[in-house]
TrEMBL record:
Keyword Transport: yes
One function term, GO molecular function aspect: phosphatidylinositol deacylase activity
Protein name: GPI inositol-deacylase
Protein location: Endoplasmic reticulum membrane
InterPro entries, sorted: AB_hydrolase_fold, PGAP1-ab_dom-like, PGAP1/BST1
Domain called GPI inositol-deacylase PGAP1-like alpha/beta: residue spans: 1-121
One biological process term in Gene Ontology: GPI anchor metabolic process
GO cellular component: endoplasmic reticulum membrane
Keywords: Endoplasmic reticulum, Hydrolase, Membrane, Protein transport, Transmembrane, Transmembrane helix, Transport
Membrane topology: Multi-pass membrane protein
Protein EC: 3.1.-.-
Purpose: Involved in inositol deacylation of GPI-anchored proteins which plays important roles in the quality control and ER-associated degradation of GPI-anchored proteins.
Protein family according to the UniProt entry: Belongs to the GPI inositol-deacylase family.
Amino acid sequence: MGGVVARLAIRLAPDLPVDAIVSIATPHQLPPANLEFDMERLYQKVNTPAAIDPILISICGGVADTQIISDTCALPDFVGPDNGFTVFSSGVPAAWTNVEHQAIVWCDQVRWRIARILLDMSAATTRDEKLSSAKKWLREAPTLSITERHQVVETLPPVANENVTCIVRLRNPTPTLVAEPPLSLLSCDSSMICEQIAASAQVIPYPRDTRLPFPLPGEGIRNEESAFAISVYHADKDKTIAIASDEQLEILATGAHLQIRGTQGSWIGGGL
């Protein structure tokens, strides 16, 4: 309920210099037990739109949280995409697991991202920058680096298709490297003269021991159980694709993919 208390404080003292509220396992929509009218009136107050609200970010534990109804953790409808968002821990990159109501406070895969969000927000100067910081660490795909100083270069095997996806794993990943992978894709000629090319990336689970449940109940996943699916369009058949990095890496698979575009976005499918 701490998130509701924070939102109520803003309603009672709108001049407080608060830029953002990050709530954890907070039932924003309904109280866990609505036993009296005073509680109903409190929720009506905090869920009435105000002229200016702080950025609201709600992190939910999902079905493992048995103290609240998981759907009530979502922010009310008046909080649009420019004012905040809701994310479940099962959708947080490199967490991918539901978290119990109390455990979400000390869940390492979640708490270090919250700490990083707050640090980045403190350095940001505009509302949009603060919101972008939260999206970057909680729900957006990682951004591949743009640099010419990478030390390790691995050449991909040839693929008879213009649309290429490779699965790459860092050998010694840290939480920051998982969120900001030091990887870039290159197009190289036969003399290994290369130029950087645009590519997109997604963090995906990479279970190390397929005999065990994944994620482990109560544990989630570790940094080394993450990999990157990097997709690129490469039409130059006379050149090869290479991956450059400052970290030791392992190419797990390479293959063609098919991109299907629709009115609501696009899907990528294929076999590696």
